[in-house]
C-alpha cells in the first residue's frame, strides 16, 4: 500500500459544521444565524488556564465532574468503575439521556451507565455489563444498544442495554480477537471493527438477516490494493471468525495490517478510524471503497495531535480525536483544514482521554480521564463540558 498524503479536499467534503455547532452553543441552535456564528468561530483561540478541575477550555465553557472511580456518583448507587474507557450517549423517551462507559480492567471489566434527566441532572448510575475483560472502546447502534469491545486475544463484543433492563449478550459472530471499537453504517447495514494489535486488521461484518439482528453474518477483513494511484479496499471473508486454530487476521492472505487500530466512527458513508502506533486517522469511503488519510502526524502541517485513540463525531462530520497520552488533549479535525485542540487536561500525565460523546442536544460533551491525576485504574474521572453563552 502506498503512503498517502493527506487528501484535504476530499476530507473537506466528508466533514461539515458539527463541531462548530457545539462551539456556537448547541446543535439545536443551528440555522442561518447559527451558520454565521459558525463561520466566526473557526479559530477558538488559545485555551484558557486550567479551571478548578484542571481542564483548559475555550472561553465560554465550563466543566464538572460527574463520576469518580471508586465513588458513588449519586447516593445509594454502586461505585463508579475503574479505568473508564470508551463511551456513548443514548437519548431517552423522557427527554433525558444515558452516558455509558466501558471499564478497561482485566477480568473485572464491563460497562456502567450514568442517567441524566431532561434538565441535565444526574439521576441514576448502574452497571450494564460485568465480569468481562479489558473493555476498551465500542460503539452505539441505531437501535439503541451499546456494543462493548474486549481488548484481549480472545476478546468478544457484547451487546448491552443502556437502561440495564436486559442482560448483555455476547456476539461471537463479530469475531474473536483483540477488539477495540465498532461502528454501524445504517444505510448498508454493515458494521466496521478495529483490532488493537501492531498488525491488526480492519474488519467488516455483514449481517445475514439485516439490522438489528447481528447474531448471524459474515466477518470480512480488508485487503488494500493500489489501483490507478488510489488505495482501494476489497473485502475477503474470514473463514473462522471464532479463531479456533488461527488468529482472524492471519486467515486471509494479503490482508492489510494497521498499526494498532483504535476508535472508529461513521459519517455520511465515510468510516473514520485511528491507528495509534503511527498516529494516523484514516477515511474509508463505503461507496467508492477508497482509503485515504484524514490526519498523519508525520506529514501534517499542524502536528499538534499525537497518541490518537477514541473518536467521536458530530452529525455534520467534524471528527474529535482523544489522545492516549500525548498532551492529554481532545482535538478536532475541522472542515476548514484546522487541527484544533478544544480542551486539555493538566496534571494527568499518566492517563489518557477516553469516551468522548455528545448529549442529544449537542450542548454537553462527556469524556473521562482514564487514570486521573494518580495514574492508576482507581483514579479515573468522568467529566461533562457545558457551553455557557447563549
Helix and strand composition category: mainly beta
Assembly context of the chains: single chain
List the total number of helices: 3
Which series of helices and strands comes N to C?
A: HHHEEEEEEEEEEEEEEEEEEEEEEEEEE
Characterise the protein shown here.
By secondary structure, this protein is mainly beta. It has one domain (8-387): TolB, C-terminal domain (Neuraminidase), CATH 2.120.10.30. 6% of the residues lie in helices and 43% in strands. The chain is built from 3 helices and 26 strands. It has helices spanning 8-14, 18-23, 32-40, and strands at 55-56, 61-68, 84-91, 97-103, 109-116, 122-132, 135-140, 146-150, 157-160, 169-170, 179-185, 190-195, 202-207, 217-227, 230-237, 261-267, 270-275, 280-285, 290-296, 308-313, 319-323, 329-333, 339-345, 353-358, 364-369, 381-387. A hairpin with a 5-residue loop joins strand 24 and strand 25.
Write the layout of secondary structure elements.
Elements: H1 8-14, H2 18-23, H3 32-40, E1 55-56, E2 61-68, E3 84-91, E4 97-103, E5 109-116, E6 122-132, E7 135-140, E8 146-150, E9 157-160, E10 169-170, E11 179-185, E12 190-195, E13 202-207, E14 217-227, E15 230-237, E16 261-267, E17 270-275, E18 280-285, E19 290-296, E20 308-313, E21 319-323, E22 329-333, E23 339-345, E24 353-358, E25 364-369, E26 381-387
Amino acid at each position: 500500500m502506498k503512503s498517502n498524503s493527506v487528501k484535504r479536499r476530499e476530507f473537506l467534503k466528508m466533514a461539515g459544521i458539527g463541531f462548530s455547532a457545539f462551539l456556537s452553543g448547541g446543535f439545536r441552535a443551528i440555522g442561518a444565524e447559527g451558520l454565521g456564528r459558525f463561520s466566526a468561530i473557526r479559530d477558538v483561540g488559545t485555551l484558557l488556564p486550567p479551571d478548578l478541575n484542571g481542564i483548559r477550555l475555550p472561553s465560554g465553557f465550563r466543566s464538572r465532574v460527574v463520576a469518580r472511580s471508586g465513588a458513588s456518583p449519586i447516593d445509594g448507587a454502586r461505585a463508579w468503575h475503574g479505568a473508564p474507557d470508551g463511551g456513548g450517549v443514548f437519548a431517552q423517551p423522557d427527554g433525558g439521556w444515558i452516558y455509558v462507559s466501558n471499564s478497561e480492567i482485566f477480568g473485572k471489566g464491563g460497562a456502567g451507565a450514568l442517567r441524566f434527566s431532561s434538565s441535565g441532572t444526574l439521576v441514576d448510575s448502574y452497571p450494564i455489563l460485568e465480569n468481562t475483560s479489558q473493555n476498551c472502546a465500542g460503539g452505539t447502534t441505531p437501535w439503541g444498544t451499546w456494543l462493548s469491545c474486549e481488548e484481549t486475544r480472545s476478546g468478544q463484543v457484547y451487546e448491552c442495554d443502556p437502561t440495564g433492563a436486559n442482560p448483555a449478550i455476547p456476539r461471537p459472530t463479530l469475531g474473536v480477537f483483540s477488539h477495540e471499537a465498532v461502528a454501524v453504517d445504517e444505510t448498508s447495514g454493515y458494521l466496521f471493527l478495529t483490532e488493537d494489535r501492531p498488525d491488526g486488521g480492519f474488519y467488516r461484518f455483514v449481517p445475514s438477516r439485516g439490522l438489528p439482528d447481528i447474531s448471524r453474518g459474515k466477518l470480512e477483513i480488508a485487503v488494500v490494493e493500489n489501483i490507478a494511484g488510489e488505495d482501494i479496499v476489497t473485502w475477503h471473508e474470514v473463514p473462522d471468525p471464532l479463531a479456533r486454530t488461527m488468529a482472524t487476521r492471519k486467515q486471509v492472505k494479503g490482508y492489510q495490517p494497521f498499526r494498532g487500530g483504535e476508535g472508529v466512527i461513521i459519517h455520511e458513508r465515510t468510516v473514520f478510524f485511528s491507528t495509534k502506533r503511527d498516529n494516523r486517522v484514516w477515511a474509508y469511503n463505503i461507496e467508492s471503497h477508497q482509503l485515504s488519510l484524514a490526519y498523519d502526524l508525520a506529514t501534517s502541517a499542524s502536528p499538534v495531535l499525537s497518541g490518537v485513540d477514541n473518536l467521536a463525531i458530530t452529525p455534520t462530520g467534524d471528527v474529535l480525536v482523544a489522545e492516549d497520552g500525548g498532551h492529554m488533549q481532545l482535538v478536532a479535525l475541522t472542515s476548514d483544514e484546522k487541527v484544533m485542540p478544544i480542551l486539555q487536561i493538566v496534571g494527568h500525565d499518566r492517563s489518557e482521554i477516553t469516551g468522548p460523546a455528545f448529549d442529544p442536544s449537542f450542548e454537553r460533551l462527556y469524556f473521562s480521564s482514564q487514570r486521573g491525576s494518580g495514574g492508576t485504574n482507581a483514579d479515573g474521572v468522568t467529566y461533562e463540558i457545558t457551553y455557557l453563552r447563549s
